[in-house]
Amino acid sequence: MSNKPTLGEFIIENEKQFKYTSGELSRLINSIRLASKIVNHEVKKAGLVDIIGATGDVNIQGEEQQKLDIYANEVFKKSLINRDIICGFASEEEENYIKIEGNNHNNKYVLLIDPLDGSSNIDVNVSVGTIFSIYRRTTPLGSKVKTEDFLQKGNKQVAAGYIVYGTSTMLVYTTGFGVNGFTLNPSLGTFYLSHPNIKFPTSGNIMSVNHCNFPYFQEGVKSYIKHFQTQKKESPNVFRYIGSFVSDFHRNMLKGGIYMYPKTIQNPKGKLRLMYECNPLAFIAEQAGGKAINGSLRILDIDPQSLHERTPMFCGSAEMVDMVKEFIVSSEEIH
Ligand code: AHG
Ligand code: MN
Ligand code: MN
Q1: What is the fold, at CATH topology level, of the domain defined by 206-334?
Q2: How confident is residue 106, by pLDDT bands cut at 50, 70 and 90?
Q3: For residue range 308-326, what is the model confidence (pLDDT) as tens digits?
């Protein structure tokens, strides 16, 4: 047995940081913890589908197995709705947000989620993840949630986190008091605190970017990439791009590096989604001493206009994010 605290114990202990807590946020994080174990179980057997059949061993209704991103969405949605723990749910997989009335009309939190990030990696046994973001509603308790409850700036987040289904499964989250990471012991089904108070190294030697888009980036970004390629350092710089933001982010936070999804000529707002991907990871990055910008502005200060809006994203070690910003700003001054 480990003498490290479990996630369940940590959540209870952490509650003391909030004055006058009703325990509602703790119950919400607990529900995410449980749902993540169900999704983890399914993700880990994805490669067995061809061996045990598409329906696996669970489907008594004889239905076709759903794609994992849809499955993950259903698991999180149902767990949170059934536990009557939030008043609103928005997901990358749903066109509109869902109003949850439940038995308890006084729930005050809304949740936004990317249920399965990096989904193109599932079939090839590469790490994927889940990203979540939690806000306190702004409209009166007991009324139906409105768009404005979801469209809040990232700096209003109460909590954010992610789960990486990797070589081991980890849950990493923040409630605004630093970032902590928990590793799942699969034989016990218990998350243990394995990475207390995670800090982004101030700089690093990793860059994560889809280099195929290089010709279509703005000049400042191109110059930063060229500078990075030729920078002389004790340990050489490297490109590492998994294509699953959450996994690239996780590695960079532990080792030091920068993740970039800049705008291109074809996609002037980039690809990543502000509410489901960028805001939660920006909150975690900052809580760990890193930074996240859209090229000029802090991600957490962007005023969102729609649920599914996209934004360019530069996120990681503080000195690296500052440097790409300098390159962008000075190239815009010249042109
Ligand atoms: P999702 O699987 O949730 O749609 O997200 C995929 C995202 C992100 O995780 C990843 O870093 C990026 O898309 C990869 O995009 P490119 O294939 O354009 O590089
Ligand atoms: Mn995603
Ligand atoms: Mn997704």
Answers
A1: D-Maltodextrin-Binding Protein; domain 2 (3.40.190)
A2: confident
A3: 999 999 999 999 999 999 9
117 lines ligand 1 (CB under 6 A): yes
Kindly state if the Cβ of 312 falls inside 6 Å of ligand 1: no
Distance 178 CA to ligand 2 centre (A): 23
Q: What is the pLDDT of residues 3-37, one digit of tens each?
A: 899 999 999 888 877 766 678 999 999 999 999 99
CA of 105 to the centre of ligand 3 (A): 30
Ligand 1 pocket test, pick from 244, 247, 264, 277 with the greatest ligand atom count within 8 Å of Cβ, gives 244
Q: How far apart are the first and last CA of the chain?
A: 61
pLDDT score at 335: 65
Would you say the CB of residue 119 lies under 6 angstroms from ligand 1? yes
Give long-range contacts, CB 8 A cutoff, 24+ apart: 193-196: 193/4, 193/5, 193/6, 193/7, 193/10, 194/4, 194/170, 195/170, 195/254
pLDDT tens per residue across span 185-198: 999 999 999 999 99
Distance from CA of residue 251 to its chain's centroid?
A: 13
Return the DSSP state at 254.
H
Pick the CATH number of 7-195 from 3.30.1830.10, 3.30.70.20, 3.90.79.10, 3.30.540.10: 3.30.540.10
Atom of ligand 1 nearest to the CA of 114: 3
Residue nearest to atom 17 of ligand 1 (CA): 243
